[in-house]
Structure prediction request, 118 residues.
Amino acid sequence: MPVCMQTLCHEETGMLELRPNCELCDCDLPPDSGDAMICTYECTYCTSCAEDVLHNVCPKCGGNFTPRPIRPRKAWRPDRGLGLENHPASNKRVHTPFSREEIDDFVARLRQVPLQDR
Prediction:
């Protein structure tokens, strides 16, 4: 029997959480923000932190960042039950577990390593 997508959690649907803040500076990153950057594990940072502090190195996985997609506000195909109105962004603020010194050391080790070699 098919399961309604609206009842599935993030892990079951594979949808992005759309975290509400930068994990480093804690600035707000609403779901329609063009300033949100994510790594392959959804670690979320503002563009300024991702570029100027982290130098495109995720402090958790060592991967790179890409702009976070913007989830449409409404279900443009109502029969599909998609969009923010059906799958709202997370309101749980996430913060990096690493100190700034740990981040700086990690980034310094990896920032010159080509992405395909990390």
About this structure: The two ends are 42 Å apart (CA to CA).
